[in-house]
Write a structure and sequence with these properties.
With 103 residues, the chain is an alpha+beta fold. The protein has helices spanning 4-12, 26-41, 48-63, 91-101, and strands spanning 69-75, 78-83. The protein is built from four helices and two strands.
């Protein structure tokens, strides 16, 4: 019998996947530090505010009036979609579907 955990472990074998957004450990800190350093060196942060504003407006337009979505918010390119209380029970199913798709 395959559990969801074993399926995810199998899919992630040999690939680092960070699937939790609130993790406080040395590896996560090192990853973030390296990513930020690389982004600065390569000038990738230029235009982040404008791009983030664009995507935030687009997400809000797409989900406006959708009863499954409580809020769309964010800053720069860190954006999030909050499920409504009526759809929150679907959150785990949505997370697993995205993981299985490799998203």
């Amino acid at each position: 019998m395959h559990t969801r955990t074993s399926r995810v472990e199998k899919m992630c074998r040999g690939v680092l996947r960070h699937v939790q957004s609130h993790l406080n450990d040395a590896l996560s800190v090192r990853i973030v530090t390296t990513v930020i350093s690389t982004m600065r060196k390569e000038g990738m942060a230029e235009g982040v505010v404008e791009k983030g504003d664009y995507f935030l407006r687009a997400l809000r337009d797409v989900y406006k009036g959708n009863p499954l979505i409580a809020d769309v918010r964010g800053r720069d390119l860190m954006l999030g979609v909050e499920l409504s209380l009526d759809s929150a029970h679907r959150g785990e199913a949505i997370q697993w579907e995205l993981i299985e798709r490799g998203t």
